[in-house]
Amino acid sequence: MSSLGTMMEFPLTLDHLLVRAERMFPAVPVVSRLPDRSLHRTTYGAVTKRARALAEALTRAGLRKGDRVATLMWNHAAHLETYLGVPLAGGVVHTLNLRLAPEELAYIIQHAADRFLLVDEVLLPLWEKVRPRAGIEKVVVVSAAQGGEYEALLATATGRWTPPQLSEGDACGMCYTSGTTGMPKGVVYTHRSTMLHTLGATLADVLAVRHADVILPVVPMFHANAWGLPYAAVMIGAKLVFPGPALDAESVLDLMARERVTVAAGVPTVWLAVLEALDREPTRWSFVPGLRMIVGGSAAPESMLRGYDRHGMTVVHAWGMTEMSPLGSVSHLGPDADTLDEAARYAQRARQGRPSPLVEIRAMNESGEVPWDDHTMGELQVRGPWVTARYHENEEAKDRWTADGWFRTGDVVTLDSTGSIKLADRTKDLVKSGGEWISSVDLENALMGHPAVKEAAVVAVPHPRWGERPLATVVLRQGRTVTAAELQEWLRPKFAKFWIPEAIVFAETIPRTSAGKFRKSELRERYAGWTWPGPTSSS
Ligand code: ADP
């Protein structure tokens, strides 16, 4: 008897999402804020039609299977058209991070061998600085107003065109990590990895999005595919709302209120600013009850979870990486939630949470795999169908994969008995004091729990006696004051004595990366020569 099953060969390719949306959800709205702040309204019906036209037009313009089509764009409907249209033509959407320096963009474009580029008209000043070094064959400007090059390109499509046969192993998208160290590294997603990631993203214990939702990806579509939300929304037919370039707190709040958003997603920086605006004017906006904010990219402090709960809004904490498409884990309360007191519930929600199905995890230290005892720290390693197996054309970074095929995340974590991840640090950000690890993330979160503190970043600074000691840079909330000694008192009941930073520096801002993360390398450089006072007394 045959050992094979009887099921159909059905490739996991993205054209399935397009067909589904055009058949089932043609009337579902897609709303985009334009650079002039007006709102552009369209539907999945129109977006999918235009995506097909884009696929045909690019093919007529010379696109061959596997060719890279770069996008230098904000979040809006035309960007969604590229997400759907380019893979339909067998091309690879390469989303460029518009916050990078021109030299970095030129490097990435060349390294990826991008042939086509679609660029927002408002980003032309940036593009002009990149253009001389980029070597793109065909550039198409996307204008918010009627007409323009992009519309002319779409108009070359006849509708009499059959998309190429796609295989699930074909590349469909590409993204570079923003590279806090070294040169940016490229990850190439396949149709299959993206489809499985899209299915995974929608699960109730992952992002729990569905047809009735209204989804606002504040996270840029160039930052790890806006965490998979555009594809997830198309698959389930959820209304999409795009913020365009207007990412300030008031614009985001206006959009959430006006478009009846039920799920919004972004990095903590954005949500901290939004929370401040809400706290200032708590009654100005009215939202859909149960509005959820998916927060990831860096740790969501517990104080943020509590802050939003006061407004009847719920923070959902997620962890991921560009290398993981990007979803790794999401923190949800389990069936024991009712037995937990308030502090324990918040502590659980502030973790990075349990890995999504199909993502396997382990944490390793020098002695091997660490126990899931919620205490022993180890480097988190992952594997799964939407985790990259290598970087694009990069030999140096091969050591990011273990001999037995796991990806080394570079994040140091503890795991509890249920596999819920608690991230202590990136490997390079841990503070090692007197031979003991100190988690900068834990200290930052506790500092940000103080009512006078807006932001806090903790870095390791060389110390003559202890090797390293933590130094905290603190930004105060407007109109608030607090002394270093008061902050140390605030931390004392929460941590072992040797964790308390002797050095607390007040600053106006904390330097950030293009993805809105603390740029700790800059802080480490700034304080490398820090002189520690008198007798070294942190024992
Ligand atoms: P880059 O490496 O270029 O900054 P990524 O967005 O891929 O770009 O960054 C992934 C890293 O971001 C993770 O390895 C982790 O250190 C950090 N990160 C992501 N989500 C969280 C989170 N919820 N809590 C803490 N750190 C996070």
CATH architecture of the domain at 11-26 and 40-195: 3-Layer(aba) Sandwich
Helical residue percent band: 25-40%
CATH top-level class of the domain at 11-26 and 40-195: Alpha Beta
Number of strands: 25
How far do the termini sit from each other?
A: 72 Å
Question: Mean of the pLDDT scores?
Answer: 95
In DSSP terms, counting alpha (H) and pi (I) runs of 4 or more, how many helices?
15
Query: Low-confidence stretches at least 5 residues in length (pLDDT < 50)?
Result: none
Q: Strand order, main sheet: write it out.
A: 2-1-10-9-11-12-13-14-15
The major sheet is characterized as:
9 strands, mixed
The small-molecule ligands in this entry are: adenosine-5'-diphosphate
Q: List the quaternary state of the chains.
A: single chain
What overall form do the CA principal axes indicate?
globular
Radius of gyration: 24 Å
CATH homology superfamily of the domain at 11-26 and 40-195 = ANL, N-terminal domain
Q: What is the CATH topology of the domain at 11-26 and 40-195?
A: Rossmann fold
Question: What is the strand and helix layout of this fold?
Answer:
Blueprint: H1 15-24, E1 29-33, E2 39-43, H2 44-60, E3 68-72, H3 77-88, E4 92-95, H4 102-112, E5 114-120, H5 124-134, E6 138-142, H6 148-155, E7 171-176, E8 186-190, H7 191-202, E9 214-217, H8 229-236, E10 239-242, H9 249-258, E11 263-266, H10 268-280, E12 292-295, H11 302-309, E13 314-320, E14 327-330, H12 342-349, E15 354-355, E16 360-365, E17 368-369, E18 378-383, E19 407-415, E20 421-426, E21 431-433, E22 436-438, H13 440-448, E23 453-463, E24 467-476, H14 484-491, E25 503-506, H15 520-526
Parallel strand pairs: 1-10, 3-4, 3-5, 4-7, 5-6, 9-10, 9-11, 11-12, 12-13, 24-25
Antiparallel strand pairs: 1-2, 7-8, 13-14, 14-15, 16-17, 16-18, 18-19, 19-20, 21-22, 23-24
Helix pairs in contact: 1-2, 1-8, 2-3, 4-5, 7-8, 9-10
The chain binds adenosine-5'-diphosphate.
